[in-house]
Amino acid sequence: MVEISTSLLSVEKEKSVKVIYDLEVAHTDYYHIDVMDGEFVENDTRELMRAHVDVIKQISNIPIDVHLMVQNVKEYVDEYLDIMPNIITFQYEALNSKEEVREIIDYIKKNNVKVGIAIKPGTNLDEIYEFLQYIHMLLIMTVEPGKGGQALIPETLDKVKTLKNYINENDLEVDIEADGGIKLENIKDVKEVGVDIAVVGTGIIKTEDYKETIKRLKE
Predict the structure, then answer these.
(1) What is the CA radius of gyration of the chain?
(2) Where are the domains of the chain?
(3) Bridging pattern class, strands 87-91 and 114-119
(4) Strand ranges inside 78-127, DSSP E
């Protein structure tokens, strides 16, 4: 069964308390926090995401899944380590060398938080295989990072399938998360290629019954 990480990217600040409470009642597995700095991607969600996190910390115990789409990775790792999320995932493309990638991985783990790497649709899997033994999760972006509500790029599911085969063949313990354009209409395809955690934003938030939607996504 796939786990569901609900993205709060499309949730307005004023509706945060109700939406987060309703998602807990609906049994989302994680709250997905999309941190964008206006540099690595166009959107700037820093203030909104901190507001959402503050609400979560007050009213919910469901794990927080932080996805950093930022240029200065270390700065935002430090900021979000303070809230003790379940996992912090950073964009591979934001760092300048493989040495930097390893340093960030080690830094997050030393602070007792799980670590994930995210890759854009155009990034080749060959570039990140060497890091899989050191991380807890690889996030395959199924859209270009930076905006919510995009359509899933079908070719990215082929990448997930290739990754799943590699993980199984090498007996690795690393989850696969997929993020972008996932909804009820395509969740079956996402599950079939081996995704462990599906990030769903508007595909949940824009529905009337979160509990029913999440139940159907997990089935």
Answers:
(1) 16
(2) 3-218
(3) parallel
(4) 87-91, 114-119
**Could you say which residues of the chain have pLDDT below 50?**
none
Enumerate residues 6+ apart whose C-beta is below 8 A from 158.
193
**29, 37, 65, 179: which is the annotated catalytic residue?**
179
CB 177 within 8 A of CB 30: no
Place of tokens 């794990």: 63
Helix (H, G, I), strand (E, B) or coil at 3: strand
Contact 143, 41 (CB under 8 A): no
| Amino acid, res. 75 | E
Tokens for 201, please give them.
């934003």
Q: Which of 29, 34, 37, 65 is catalytic?
A: 34
**Which DSSP letter does residue 116 get?**
E
Q: How far apart are CA 128 and CA 59, in angstroms?
A: 37
Quick check: is 34 catalytic? yes
Q: Is 171 among the catalytic positions? A: no
| 3, two tokens | 């786990």
Do 69 and 91 meet the contact criterion of CB atoms below 8 Å apart?
yes
Q: Look up residue 145 and give its two tokens.
A: 């990072």
| Beta carbons of 207 and 28 less than 8 angstroms apart | no
Domain 3-218 has CATH 3.20.20.70: yes
Nearest Cα residue to 37 out of 88, 83, 91: 91
